Amino acid sequence: LLAAPTGLGQGPGRRWRPSPAQNPLEKVTAQAELSLPQLAGRWFLVGMASRCSYLTEHNHQLEATAVTVTIPDGQSLAISTFRKLDGMCWEMRQRYLPSQAHRHFFLKGHGYGSKVDVVVGKTDHRSYVILYYQKGQSISIKLYGRTSQVSDTVVKKFEQHIRAAGLSEDVTYYFPTYGFCDSADEFHILD
């Protein structure tokens, strides 16, 4: 019962090993022409697809979320996220550092396995951007708009990206279009 089925070994004395799991971001086609200066400015989180258990359990508490993007050094993205938490407006600051792959970024975290890879999947720079986030083998996709509402065409593109990544509409959430924070009562730097 415990023996490996015939043909699975790779010769005498060798153990069968499963092939390593493919990195989900390897299947993502990054934006062909990306202009970082054109990404600068204010964006609104419109939607997100993720299998995150916290998001699944608390999706009824989603808050309007806005981000401001700056390009401090011509290579990285400085992200200031403004959202309400317990009735107060908070600002969270992050730095998306350039990765070795073109149009790819990463967020450093504390401890093993805390790095998050980020890919700009699609943008027209004027009205929307679709970002992919991967931590370990878990992938999330976010849709940002220059306004809190985007066209149906953009929503359809977002939903195509969701399906292509193996996610579905039951793990897709859309954010409120009102109640944004313009400034922060408190801030936190995430590095």
From TrEMBL:
Q: Which GO terms describe its cellular component?
A: blood microparticle; extracellular exosome; membrane attack complex
Ranges for domain Lipocalin/cytosolic fatty-acid binding = 40-174
- For the region Disordered, give the residue spans: 1-23
Entries under InterPro entries matching the protein? A1-microglobln, C8G, Calycin, Lipocalin_CS, Lipocln_cytosolic_FA-bd_dom
Tell me the Pfam families matching this sequence: Lipocalin (PF00061)
Q: Where in the cell is it found?
A: Secreted
Q: Does the keyword rRNA processing apply?
A: no
Show the GO MF annotations.
complement binding
**Keywords, in A-Z order:** Disulfide bond, Secreted, Signal
GO annotation terms (biological process): complement activation
Signal peptide positions on this chain: none
Q: Which SUPFAM superfamilies match?
A: Lipocalins (SSF50814)
The record ties this protein, via PROSITE patterns, to: LIPOCALIN (PS00213)
- Primary subcellular site in the record, as a coarse category: secreted
What domain of life does the native source organism fall in?
Eukaryota
Tell me its family.
Belongs to the calycin superfamily. Lipocalin family.
PANTHER family registered for this protein in UniProt: COMPLEMENT COMPONENT C8 GAMMA CHAIN
| Name of the protein in its database record | CO8G protein
Organism this protein belongs to = Bucco capensis (collared puffbird)
